[in-house]
Specification:
The protein has 10 helices and no strands. The chain is mainly α. The N terminus is likely disordered.
Amino acid sequence: MSEQPELRFVTDQPLAAPHPNLDELIAVMAQLRGPGGCPWDAEQTHESLVRYLVEETFELVDAIESGSRQELIEELGDVLYQVLFHSDIAASAQDEPFTIEDVAAHMTAKMVARHPHVFGDATAETAEDVVAVWDDVKSREKSHRTSILDGIPQGMPSLALADKVLGRAEKAGVLEGGSSAVSVADEEELGGLLLAIVASARTQGLDAERALRSTLRSLQDEIRASESAE
């Protein structure tokens, strides 16, 4: 395992600042899932909670896009609670248990390693420089991957999945960016075009979501075939 860079914090605040409200939430979770707690909470698994994690995540997106400050606080809390829930389930696992502390420690190490321009000796003056540094570090971390498509979650909404696949392919030079672009002035016009496509699909009895996913599967097969031929 490679050495983690030494952390350099530029702050007057103590590194281990107390978080009493967060600690209390963790304690509430432990009581709910512990002896004498809530039967429903106690019987949940990572798999049974997936639907709630997805739902809470989309509710957070709604709050970010059009909600109030209070709605954003509430939805962030719901997503945070899902993280704590999964961590508490893992803490009581018979095989390879872990806790929320392990999750936090892993994330800290990951963020430090991927920001050598902050915690190390690398230089990144612009946002574009930061992305380049991030991609370089990530490629070394994920050197075991054999395809540019590895690590893309196929369960993403189809439009987000399409953007991810095209972005990876263009960055690797497998596809030329904008080769089949439709000219639109802004996101409002783009939204209208997408809605018209879905409406047209409905009128003709077609499933727009399934159609895009099918096309993406074919595109990913082509990309992997191209990689294998190199």
